[in-house]
Amino acid sequence: MNAHIESFHRILEDNCLSGCEFETYGEAYKAIIEFMDFYNNRRIHSSILGLTPKEFYELQKSGKTGIKDIRVYPPIPFFLRFVPALKSANS
């Protein structure tokens, strides 16, 4: 899931923050809020059927995407992978 966050931060930086110098925290906050509104409600995403995240969410809620819900479990921390009892209990 970290890749999604990193991708969003890159897009935020490239499309909203780069080349901007904000005079105040309030200006920066307003620009970021406006970008997030654009990103979630108007920007189409090729990875979700060419829809906006809001449109995709509504479609997925109604079960019309044909995509099953996928449950992602957190990975076993690296240092616990070598403890046999814990590894088998979490696998």
UniProtKB/TrEMBL annotation:
Residues 1-61 form the Integrase catalytic domain. InterPro entries: Integrase_cat-core (IPR001584), RNaseH-like_sf (IPR012337). It holds the Pfam family rve_2. Transmembrane segments: none annotated. It comes from the Bacteria. This is IS3 family transposase. It comes from Lentibacillus salinarum.
